[in-house]
């Protein structure tokens, strides 16, 4: 990329990034003690493992695209992976924060979800049909509605969005017997819900005081599409840089956002067509950054994808291992726990950068 400073290695890049962050934090202040931190910090790094319970196109086979129309029709492999992952993390002293597409509650058997909830794994709302919240017309909300517009015909866009989210709250309560724990938008947005007070107010009106929707932009991924090559240095540098942009923030409406930390499994295995080893390297880099900076790390994955490329749970075990190696500096938590600790540090003035 023209004009971009290059660094010899990721360690050098990290040092420069932290120095730049510190300079921004100190600008206009006489001493470091007088400056507000650039993002919430914690006594221990807050490491969260989250799973979006939905089907993903291109998995398990690259030609699979029908999932776009039935995102919540989880296959048995995705459900089995979810349960096994939850059991694995619980055995290590943590819990996985899941986000469910409401369509799954139309399936005959949801005992697996009941067991997850009974074991203490929070279940959040991921809309009913995996809709695009930043859509400008009802047809843009979801492939399903474009194919069958009569499903939402005659209704205003805000009403369709509100109902689609509310339905998952109702379904979760009626079929599983638990209250929704948080909300995650389908897809991640580089600027989150900035300048979309309309969507923020819909979520606040439905009882959500926090969401997970920001996914910071990072370069270096697209050039690898379909190649299977090892990611470029730029890709790793950008993922590392984006960690500071992946920290909790508060919008002007009061809604709190807990961003997803790059790189997600979809970003790596669909967009970048990475090999597993490269993904593990990026995950380790991000978790270590959070530990070094007393920050948060929100690992985002999808059982329908990660279960295909990482059937032996290497990514999840790696995260648990990194936390176990630094018990005085890091802990496995859920997103609601991150919100509780970050909230006192998030002033109304601190908005998305």
Topology:
Elements: H1 10-26, E1 45-53, H2 76-91, E2 96-100, H3 111-118, E3 123-125, H4 143-147, H5 157-175, E4 183-189, H6 197-205, E5 210-214, H7 233-242, E6 249-250, E7 256-257, H8 265-271, H9 276-293, E8 296-301, H10 303-309, H11 314-325, E9 330-333, H12 335-342
Parallel strand pairs: 1-2, 1-8, 1-9, 2-3, 4-5, 5-7
Antiparallel strand pairs: 6-7
Description of the structure:
The chain has 353 residues and is of the alpha/beta class. The protein has one domain (42-128, 171-345): Glycoside hydrolase/deacetylase (TIM Barrel, Alpha-Beta Barrel). It is 39% helix and 12% strand. The protein has 12 helices and 9 strands. The strands form 2 sheets. Strands 1, 2, 3, 8 and 9 form a 5-stranded parallel β-sheet that branches. Strands 4-5-7-6 form a 4-stranded mixed β-sheet, with helices on one face. Helix 3 links the parallel strand 2 and strand 3. The longest helix has 19 residues, at 157-175. Residues 1-34 have low confidence and may be disordered.
How many domains make up the coordinates? 1
Mean pLDDT: 88
First-last Cα distance: 22 Å
Question: In sequence order, what are the helices and strands, one letter per element?
Answer: HEHEHEHHEHEHEEHHEHHEH
CATH class: Alpha Beta
Low-pLDDT ranges: 1-34
Count of DSSP-assigned helices = 12
CATH topology: TIM Barrel
CATH superfamily: Glycoside hydrolase/deacetylase
Shape: globular
Determine the structural class based on helices, strands and strand pairing. Answer: alpha/beta
Pfam family, one: Polysacc_deac_1
Protein name: Polysaccharide deacetylase
GO molecular function: hydrolase activity, acting on carbon-nitrogen (but not peptide) bonds
Domain NodB homology: 79-190
């Amino acid at each position: 990329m023209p004009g971009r400073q290059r660094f010899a290695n990721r360690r050098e890049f990290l040092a420069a990034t932290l120095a730049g962050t510190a300079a921004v934090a100190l600008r206009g202040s006489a001493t470091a003690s007088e400056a507000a931190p650039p993002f919430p910090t914690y006594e221990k790094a807050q490491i969260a493992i989250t799973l979006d319970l939905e089907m993903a196109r291109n998995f398990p086979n690259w030609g699979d695209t029908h999932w776009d129309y039935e995102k919540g029709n989880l296959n048995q492999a995705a459900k089995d992976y979810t349960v096994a992952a939850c059991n694995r993390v619980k055995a290590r002293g943590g819990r996985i924060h899941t986000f469910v597409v409401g369509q799954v509650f139309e399936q005959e058997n949801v005992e697996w979800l009941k067991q997850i909830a009974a074991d203490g794994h929070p279940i959040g709302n991921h809309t009913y049909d995996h809709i695009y919240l930043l859509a400008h017309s009802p047809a843009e909300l979801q492939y399903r509605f474009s194919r069958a517009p009569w499903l939402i015909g005659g209704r205003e866009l805000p009403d369709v969005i509100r109902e689609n989210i509310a339905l998952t709250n109702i379904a979760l309560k009626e079929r599983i017997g638990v209250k929704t724990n948080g909300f995650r938008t389908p897809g991640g947005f580089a600027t989150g819900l900035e300048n979309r007070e309309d969507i923020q107010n819909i979520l606040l009106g439905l009882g959500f005081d926090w969401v997970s929707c920001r996914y910071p932009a990072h370069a270096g991924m697209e050039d690898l599409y379909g190649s299977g090559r090892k990611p470029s240095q730029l890709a790793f540098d950008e993922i590392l840089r984006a960690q500071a942009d992946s920290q909790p923030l508060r919008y002007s409406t009061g809604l709190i956002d807990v961003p997803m930390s790059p790189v997600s499994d979809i970003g790596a295995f669909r967009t970048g067509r990475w090999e597993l080893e490269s993904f593990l390297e990026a995950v380790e880099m991000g978790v270590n950054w959070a530990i070094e900076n007393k920050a948060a790390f929100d690992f985002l994955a999808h059982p329908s994808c990660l279960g295909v490329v990482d059937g032996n749970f290497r990514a999840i075990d790696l995260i648990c291992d990194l936390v176990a190696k630094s018990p005085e500096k890091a802990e496995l938590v859920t997103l609601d726990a991150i919100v509780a600790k970050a909230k006192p540090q998030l002033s109304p003035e601190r908005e998305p950068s």
